[in-house]
Amino acid sequence: MLSDSMRVFITVADKKNFSKAAKALSLTQPAVSFQIQTLEQYYQTMLFDRVNRHVKLTAAGELLLDYAVHMNNLQAELERNMQQLTGHVKGELLIGASTTIGEYILPYVVGSFKHDYPDVNVTIQIMNTKDIANAIRNKTFDLGIIEGPLDHSESMEVHKFLEDELVLAIPADHPLASKESITLDELKELPYITREPGSGSRLIFEQALIDADFDIENLNVVMELGSTTSIKSAIMGGLGISTISKWAIQDLLKTGKVAALNIDGLTLKRNFNIILNKEKFQSEATGKFLDFLDVDNINRILES
Amino acid sequence: MLSDSMRVFITVADKKNFSKAAKALSLTQPAVSFQIQTLEQYYQTMLFDRVNRHVKLTAAGELLLDYAVHMNNLQAELERNMQQLTGHVKGELLIGASTTIGEYILPYVVGSFKHDYPDVNVTIQIMNTKDIANAIRNKTFDLGIIEGPLDHSESMEVHKFLEDELVLAIPADHPLASKESITLDELKELPYITREPGSGSRLIFEQALIDADFDIENLNVVMELGSTTSIKSAIMGGLGISTISKWAIQDLLKTGKVAALNIDGLTLKRNFNIILNKEKFQSEATGKFLDFLDVDNINRILES
DNA sequence: AAAACCAATAAAATTTTCTAATCAAATTGT
DNA sequence: ACAATTTGATTAGAAAATTTTATTGGTTTT
Fold it and tell me: CA nearest B43 in A: which residue?
């Protein structure tokens, strides 16, 4: 166990700001000031230059940080070994996830995981792919699950997760609902609800249309909505139809309220990917969660 | 900085006894119990088997000790680097020394050292060579200074320190006091005061007599005393003469109260040696003290 | 069987750490 | 230039943690 003052020091060095470090540690700023002063008195030297607007490590601060980080890593390693030895897995698990995964898949997975490992505190943060990648790079998050691929980057580890497929969601009482698939010509006639520009689902759909030499202008777009949930509501309200992740409409499919159709000639598949920072020491909780993300296990969970 | 509970844990693991660890840490036994319980609750496992009469590390305890020691070493290294960087040398310095060194040389050396490094807390413990060697092996002491050589041992580092010489101390008003040296025949007639059997000085003297083919029985032993100081008093009281380290009678020589004579045909020289544990990380205080023990420096100090 | 040893526990005292409230200095925006 | 904002230091009081004192119960030793 590292001393508290060291943990505070590492955070300040990271944030370069006493107040922000305090927030990150759930402390008040004076508490942080106090801990840093304690260290500075102990080592009889300034650890930070309090220069306008931000603080900067002194040479002594750099030296201390070096050792502090090293000790912190040792501590993490110890923690993992101890949990493996005793079987008591615990700690924090921070996951960054894209919308569909975070809203429609992870809640069930985490529920099941918490059943097996009740002392692991799981936090799911829903963000876009770029922010997730950054948080993984920073080691702020333990793992990320993104929709689609990641621009290649050093020190990132990518694992395939589930396969996703956009399907055409149609209200169950719609005349076309009984079909297996429809053609692009049939699609043209239907009132289509689209996601906002830049959304991953929209990009996939439009790219597939381009690949199929279909002019997007021919779509009968009746509405643009900013979230999967609002699109689902709109479909249920009979306002139109849309292409949407099969995972996002599991509930509606099960209760028979919507039908999922394929569109002839369009491939709307993509992969969900798990991303990790190779250089981050993984806690036992992260390790167990990764084991848990095994596709067979996930299917078992999502079916029940 | 290691947390307090870790420091307590290391001590208990070392002493295998809560109460003794408490004493070593200047705490009470319940405080130690509390710290260990805190760790055990944190890791959700027993760290010690409380078995009759002593405590024993569990597997989890062994694991923790491993990391605790590693972190402790890192901390010591950090401390040294920080002190080198800032120039603020401080901390504890525990020295084990043989009698003559501890009583007649080190006090002056330490006085001078404290002048240069006031924040280093120096403790001199006077013990016999065997105990000093053990304490160095245990890493309980930072360095030892012994009279005579050390039975060779792995992981021990030996440095030559000052040269010592036993001289015949005679009251200044004695008829022979004006001579440079006396013969063994002359010595036979003088009332000789001896140290207890097993004493280093006595061994050296007797070995020299054997080497010179002189029968010890021929000595006119009038008294046996257990310390250098008591022998000095006895000599001053005119009760007899004795062979004694030249360092031990510096004061009496300077004030002209005794004379130091050589004995023809006897070599009564030996070396003081500094011993260190190669595997112990040396603090900056130890490093600076070793620099201080440079022979030229010592002579300078002892002359003033 | 009595004495000695050892760790656990409970409650009180103490020390350490934290928060709330303010302050002063520096920066930013207008 | 001036008000608003940001940032860390300071101080007093509150809260939390650690430690001590005192005591108990279980072993082992004598």
Answer: A82
